[in-house]
């Protein structure tokens, strides 16, 4: 489990550096609607106080269903603060981003193969083998 957290941290940093990271429930839904074949990985994040947000839970359910239908690996993270520390504020406005949903996309130009992504894909496959369809990952400190 800790290896998966480290791999997710590495993937987020790498994807952001390459411009392959989309943050926000609405932005992610738009991207999945327009170009689902380009989505390589999905992260859903919620803190304890978000668990009571019915609208967010409905969004999560729809995103999870979409990812399952389109063979997109998906994980949950229970610490939006740690995600914010990794991903940081919006580069455009400097404002905090909606980090409840993060998509990692595959840039078409070079067939990007990230070892962290491959490790997470294996982790998700192993989780599905034990009927854990959306495993929870703990990010390292």
UniProtKB/TrEMBL annotation:
<dbReference type="GO" id="GO:0006915">
    <property type="term" value="P:apoptotic process"/>
</dbReference>
<feature type="domain" description="Ribosomal protein eL8/eL30/eS12/Gadd45">
    <location>
        <begin position="7"/>
        <end position="88"/>
    </location>
</feature>
<dbReference type="Pfam" id="PF01248">
    <property type="entry name" value="Ribosomal_L7Ae"/>
</dbReference>
<dbReference type="GO" id="GO:0030154">
    <property type="term" value="P:cell differentiation"/>
</dbReference>
<dbReference type="InterPro" id="IPR024824">
    <property type="entry name" value="GADD45"/>
</dbReference>
<keyword id="KW-0221">Differentiation</keyword>
<dbReference type="GO" id="GO:0005737">
    <property type="term" value="C:cytoplasm"/>
</dbReference>
<dbReference type="InterPro" id="IPR004038">
    <property type="entry name" value="Ribosomal_eL8/eL30/eS12/Gad45"/>
</dbReference>
<dbReference type="InterPro" id="IPR029064">
    <property type="entry name" value="Ribosomal_eL30-like_sf"/>
</dbReference>
<keyword id="KW-0217">Developmental protein</keyword>
<protein>
    <recommendedName>
        <fullName>Growth arrest and DNA damage-inducible protein GADD45 gamma</fullName>
    </recommendedName>
</protein>
<comment type="function">
    <text>Involved in the regulation of growth and apoptosis. Mediates activation of stress-responsive MTK1/MEKK4 MAPKKK.</text>
</comment>
<dbReference type="GO" id="GO:0051726">
    <property type="term" value="P:regulation of cell cycle"/>
</dbReference>
<comment type="subunit">
    <text>Undergoes concentration-dependent homodimerization, which is required for growth inhibititory activity and enhances interaction with PCNA. Interacts with GADD45GIP1. Interacts with PCNA.</text>
</comment>
<comment type="similarity">
    <text>Belongs to the GADD45 family.</text>
</comment>
<dbReference type="GO" id="GO:0005634">
    <property type="term" value="C:nucleus"/>
</dbReference>
<keyword id="KW-0053">Apoptosis</keyword>
<dbReference type="GO" id="GO:0043410">
    <property type="term" value="P:positive regulation of MAPK cascade"/>
</dbReference>
């Amino acid at each position: 489990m800790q290896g998966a957290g480290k791999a997710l941290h590495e993937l987020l940093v790498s994807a952001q550096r390459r411009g392959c990271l989309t943050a926000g429930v609405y932005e992610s839904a738009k991207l999945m609607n327009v170009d689902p074949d380009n989505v390589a990985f999905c992260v859903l994040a919620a803190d304890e106080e978000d668990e009571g947000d019915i609208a967010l839970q409905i969004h999560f359910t729809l995103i999870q269903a979409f990812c399952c239908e389109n063979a997109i690996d998906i994980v949950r993270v229970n610490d939006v603060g740690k995600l914010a520390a990794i991903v940081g504020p919006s580069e455009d406005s400097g404002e905090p981003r909606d980090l409840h949903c993060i998509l990692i996309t595959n840039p078409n130009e070079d067939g990007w193969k990230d070892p962290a992504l491959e490790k997470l894909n294996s982790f998700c496959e192993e989780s599905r083998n034990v009927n854990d369809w959306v495993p929870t990952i703990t990010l390292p400190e």
